[in-house]
Amino acid sequence: MNIPATLHYTKDHEWISLDGDTATIGITDHAQRELGDIVYVDIDTVDKDIAQHDVFGTVEAVKTVSDLFSPISGTVLEVNPKLADAPETVNSDPYGDGWIIKMKVANQGEVAGLLSAEAYGELVGA
C-alpha cells in the first residue's frame, strides 16, 4: 500500500499536501481500494468556507457513496477538472492526478493534529 511520507492524513482516509496557504486534498490509496471503482466525484463547495471535519463532497463508487471530510478549515478554491470526465483517476493515481480539491488554508495550526504517514499506516494496518 502506498502511503507517501510527505503528506498528512486523517482517520477518515483523506490526505493533504501543503504549498504555503494552499492545500491539495484527496483520498488515500487505502480508501480508493476499499471503495472500488470510482464512477463519480460530486463537489458543490467551490468558493465556500468549510470547517475542519465538515463534508466537502462525495465520491461514488459502483457499490457505495462516501462522504469526503475536510482535514482542515478553509475555502475550497477548485475541483480537479480531470475528475468530471475521468473519476477513475482517483483509483489509478490517488496521490497525483487523482487529487480532488484545492483549498485556501484558514488555520495552519490544524495541520499539527493530522496523522503522519507512519501513524496512518498503523491505523490501516499497513
Automatic annotation (TrEMBL):
Residues recorded as bearing N6-lipoyllysine in the entry: 63
SUPFAM superfamilies per record: Single hybrid motif
PROSITE patterns tied to this protein: BIOTINYL_LIPOYL, LIPOYL
Superkingdom of origin: Bacteria
Cofactor dependence: (R)-lipoate
Cofactor binding note from Swiss-Prot or TrEMBL: Binds 1 lipoyl cofactor covalently.
Residue intervals of the Lipoyl-binding domain: 22-104
Entry keyword Translocase: no
Record keywords, A-Z: Lipoyl
InterPro entries: 2-oxoA_DH_lipoyl-BS, Biotin_lipoyl, GCV_H, GCV_H/Fam206, GCV_H_sub, Single_hybrid_motif
Function field: The glycine cleavage system catalyzes the degradation of glycine. The H protein shuttles the methylamine group of glycine from the P protein to the T protein.
Family: Belongs to the GcvH family.
Assembly, per entry: The glycine cleavage system is composed of four proteins: P, T, L and H.
NCBIfam families: gcvH, PRK01202.1
Full protein name: Glycine cleavage system H protein
Classification of source organism: Bacteria, Pseudomonadati, Bacteroidota, Cytophagia, Cytophagales
